[in-house]
C-alpha cells in the first residue's frame, strides 16, 4: 500500500511537476518508510506516466528517480522497481523512443542486482535487451564492449559457452579499437576467450591463452598462478602429439609451474613417462565438470588423453608390441588399442606401422610431424623402401654366392638343374 504522505505529495506535485517530483524524491526518507520504499517508488512511476507530462519533464523526473533507486543500494528493490519502470517505459509508445538511455541505465542496474544474487542467466537476458545498434541512440564501441563482455561472462557462469561465443564474436569486431585504452577490458576479453576454448575442448588453444594471461601484471599473483594451473590442466587434456609436447615444454620451462599441484603430472607427460591410475584419479579431482565430460566413444576427455599419452610413452619404450600386450598397458582390449594406434598414426601424432596379420605394432623412432596423414611420412616410407631394397639385394647376393659354390663343387648337378 502506498504511504499516505507520498499520496499527498503526489497530488501537490501536479501543480509544478518538475519541482514537485524532485522535492518528493529528495525528501523520500521523510515521506516513505523503508518497508514501503519499493511500493512508493512504483507509485511515483505510475503517477508520472499516467499524467502525460511530456518528454522533457518525464525524462528529468525519471533521471532523479533512477538516482534515488541506485543510491538505495537495495538489490531486491533494483530488480522490483527497475523492472516496473522499464515496463512502464515500454508500454508508453509516445515516450519509449525518447527514454532509451533511461531504460538502458535501468537494465544495467537490474543486471547488476541479478549478478549479485548469482542469477547470471537473468542478468545476461536483461543486458541483451539494451539496444546497442539502434538509430535512435548512438553508442560508443567502448560502451558496446562493456555490455557484451558482461553478457559473455554471465553466460560462461551458466556454462553456456555457445551463446557466450556468439557475443564474443561481436566483441572481436570492436576490441581492437578499445582494448589498448582499457587493459582491464582486454584482460576480461582474453580470459573469456580462453574459457570458451576450454569449454569447447579446444584444449591446446586454451592452454596457450591461459598461459599468456598468467603473465599479465593487471591481475594478482594468486590469479596468475590460477590461470597457469588452468593452462597445465588444458595441456594435459589436449590430444597427444607434437603440438601438445611443445605446449607441455613451454609450461615445464615456466619456473612457477614447480610450485603447483599439477606439476607432477606435467613433468611425467613432458618426459613421456607412463601414468598410473592413482596419479590420474588424483588429477581428475581438480578438473571442472566439462573437462570430465564423456566423448563420443563413451570415455572421458581425461581418459582419452591418458590413453594417448601412455601410447606415446610405450612407443619410447618398445620397438614393437602386440595388440593384446599394448591393451594391457593402456587398460583397453587389444582391438581398441589397435584402433587408437591407427587413429594416431593416421592423424600424424604417432609414427609407426601396424601388422594386422601378426597383430603387432611397430614404432618408429623420432617425433611425428603432427600433420594429418603423416604418421608414416614420405621420408619414412622412402626409408622403408630402401631397407627392403637392401634386404632383397642381400638375399640375391647370397643366392648367387651359393650358386657359385655349388657350381664349383658339383658342376654336373648344377648343369642338370639349370637345364631343367
Automatic annotation (TrEMBL):
Signal peptide start and end residues: none
**Annotated ranges, domain PCI:** 199-368
PROSITE patterns of this UniProt entry?
PCI
Keyword list (alphabetical) reads:
Cytoplasm, Nucleus, Signalosome
A Pfam family hit: PCI
At the top level, the lineage of the source is Eukaryota
Give the primary localization class: cytoplasm
Instruction: Tell where it localizes.
Output: Cytoplasm; Nucleus
Segments passing through the bilayer: none
The UniProt similarity line reads: Belongs to the CSN4 family.
- The name on file for this protein is COP9 signalosome complex subunit 4
Amino acid at each position: 500500500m502506498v504511504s499516505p504522505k507520498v499520496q499527498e505529495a503526489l497530488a501537490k506535485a501536479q501543480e509544478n511537476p518538475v519541482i514537485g517530483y524532485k522535492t518528493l524524491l529528495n525528501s523520500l526518507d521523510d515521506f516513505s518508510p523503508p518497508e514501503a520504499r519499493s511500493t512508493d517508488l512504483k507509485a511515483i512511476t505510475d503517477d508520472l506516466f499516467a499524467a502525460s507530462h511530456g518528454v522533457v519533464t518525464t525524462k528529468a523526473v525519471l533521471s532523479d528517480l533512477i538516482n534515488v533507486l541506485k543510491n538505495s543500494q537495495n538489490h531486491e528493490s533494483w530488480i522490483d522497481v527497475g523492472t516496473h519502470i522499464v515496463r512502464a517505459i515500454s508500454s508508453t509508445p509516445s515516450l519509449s523512443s525518447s527514454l532509451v538511455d533511461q531504460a538502458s541505465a535501468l537494465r544495467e542496474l537490474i543486471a547488476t542486482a541479478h549478478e549479485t544474487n548469482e542469477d547470471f542467466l537473468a542478468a545476461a537476458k536483461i543486458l541483451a535487451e539494451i539496444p546497442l545498434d539502434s538509430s535512435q541512440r548512438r553508442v560508443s564501441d567502448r560502451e558496446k564492449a562493456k555490455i557484451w563482455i558482461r553478457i559473455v561472462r554471465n553466460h560462461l557462469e551458466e556454462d553456456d559457452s555457445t551463446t557466450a561465443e556468439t557475443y564474443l564474436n561481436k566483441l572481436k569486431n570492436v576490441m581492437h579499437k578499445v582494448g589498448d585504452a582499457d587493459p582491464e577490458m582486454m584482460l576480461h576479453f582474453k580470459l573469456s576467450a580462453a574459457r570458451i576454448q576450454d569449454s569447447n575442448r579446444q584444449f591446446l588453444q586454451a592452454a596457450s591463452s591461459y598461459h599468456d594471461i598468467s603473465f599479465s601484471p593487471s591481475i594478482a599473483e594468486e590469479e596468475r598462478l590460477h590461470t597457469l594451473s588452468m593452462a597445465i590442466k588444458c595441456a594435459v587434456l589436449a590430444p597427444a602429439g607434437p603440438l601438445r609436447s611443445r605446449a607441455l615444454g613451454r609450461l615445464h620451462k615456466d619456473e612457477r609451474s614447480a610450485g603447483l599441484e599439477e606439476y607432477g603430472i606435467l613433468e611425467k607427460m613432458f618426459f613421456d613417462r607412463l601414468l598410473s591410475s592413482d596419479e590420474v584419479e588424483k588429477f581428475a579431482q581438480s578438473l571442472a565438470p566439462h573437462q570430465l565430460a564423456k566423448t563420443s566413444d563413451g570415455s572421458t576427455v581425461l581418459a582419452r588423453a591418458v590413453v594417448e599419452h601412455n601410447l606415446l610413452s610405450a612407443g619410447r619404450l618398445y620397438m614393437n608390441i602386440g595388440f593384446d600386450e599394448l591393451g594391457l598397458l593402456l587398460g583397453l582390449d587389444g582391438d581398441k588399442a589397435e584402433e587408437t594406434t591407427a587413429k594416431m598414426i593416421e592423424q600424424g601424432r604417432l609414427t609407426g606401422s601396424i601388422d594386422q596379420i601378426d597383430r603387432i605394432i611397430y614404432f618408429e623412432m623420432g617425433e611425428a610431424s603432427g600433420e594429418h596423414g603423416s604418421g608414416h611420412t614420405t621420408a619414412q616410407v622412402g626409408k622403408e623402401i630402401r631397407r627392403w631394397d637392401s634386404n632383397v639385394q642381400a638375399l640375391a647376393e647370397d643366392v648367387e654366392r651359393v650358386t657359385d659354390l655349388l657350381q664349383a663343387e658339383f658342376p654336373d648337378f648344377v648343369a642338370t638343374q639349370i637345364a631343367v
